[in-house]
Description:
By secondary structure, this protein is of the alpha+beta class. The chain is built from two helices and six strands. It has helices spanning 13-17, 46-50; strands at residues 2-3, 23-24, 34-35, 57-58, 68-70, 77-79. The protein is elongated, with a radius of gyration of 19 Å.
Amino acid sequence: MAIDPEKCTGCNLCVNVCPADVFVPNPEAGRVPLVLFVDECWYCGPCVDECPHAGAIRLNYPVMWRVPWKRKETGQHYWVGMKNPPPPNDTPPA
């Protein structure tokens, strides 16, 4: 998650709506909120939804974009959303 200082006006709406308390108000009024607990981010999106400035907050979904899974029969690793995944009922070659 990142805040674009060029677009953020320091309104602190993100601070107020974040259920994980990732943001902390900047002690200097009108400045970009501090992101102190980025590892605690749930990527739930209220901060983005409530922000009045489009693109000021960007969520980078590190885990959720690539949910992994492993085929038991072959041991091959895949992820949800990958291009050209094998069919679910595909049988391994003999």
